[in-house]
Design a protein that fits this description.
By secondary structure, the protein is an alpha/beta fold. It folds into two domains: 5-69; 88-167, Winged helix-like DNA-binding domain superfamily/Winged helix DNA-binding domain (Arc Repressor Mutant, subunit A, Orthogonal Bundle). Helix content is 34%, strand content 15%. The chain has six helices and six strands; from the N terminus they run E-E-E-H-E-H-H-E-H-H-E-H. A four-stranded mixed beta sheet has the order 3-2-1-4, sandwiched between helices. Strands 5-6 form a two-stranded parallel ribbon. A hairpin with a 2-residue loop joins strand 2 (14-21) and strand 3 (24-29).
């Protein structure tokens, strides 16, 4: 992988860290408690990255992230990615996930099938667990069987996944318990 740069940007949902190479975005760090926490977590994955101001397509990606974090419906499909370290299976899963639009969800099994890997739901979950660019590759839109929230490896876990889905108008909370009718 070529040299990388990074920036930490303030958004309505908190500080988001990004790293990129000459070929595209390589990492996205969802918000930690503060700017420094986000920066530290990002630099664990890209320790040689140098802080820089995003330019060109990366600056456009930052603008899209800021708008998304403000609640706007955004399509990240044109954001250039550099996933050169990913194996062919992961690339297929990430491509299939990127085809999901704002507010659309599927299950791990459904995503595996749409990526050409039917029956590999567990492996799909593992691939998404190592997704280096959440939101851009929208792993938060992938649910467990029965449309349950499932896991989420980003800071905050399932709570963060639920918040991102709620921003997109998706509720995965169980319905309230039915009221029992009593006849007297």
């Amino acid at each position: 992988m070529s040299a990388q740069s990074y920036a930490v940007i303030e958004t309505p949902i908190g500080w988001i860290g990004i790293a990129w190479s000459a070929h595209g975005l390589t990492n996205l760090q969802l918000p930690e408690r503060d700017r420094e926490g986000t920066r530290r977590r990002l630099l664990r994955r890209v320790p040689a990255a140098l802080e820089a101001r995003p330019q060109g397509a990366i600056a456009e990606a930052v603008a899209l992230l800021e708008r998304y974090a403000a609640g706007e419906e955004i399509d990240f499909g044109d954001v250039p990615l550099d996933l050169s370290g990913a194996d062919p299976f992961r690339l297929a899963i990430y491509r299939a996930a990127r085809r999901l639009g704002f507010g659309q969800t599927t299950t791990y099994g459904g995503l595996a099938e749409s990526a050409g890997h039917p029956g590999e739901a567990r492996e799909t979950g593992q691939a998404l667990g190592s997704n280096p660019v959440p939101i851009i590759v929208p792993c938060h839109r992938i649910l467990a069987a029965g449309n349950k929230i499932g896991g989420f490896s980003a800071p905050g876990g399932a709570r963060t996944k639920r918040r991102l889905l709620a921003m997109e108008g998706v509720s995965v909370d169980p319905p309230p318990p039915a009221q029992r009718a009593f006849a007297f």
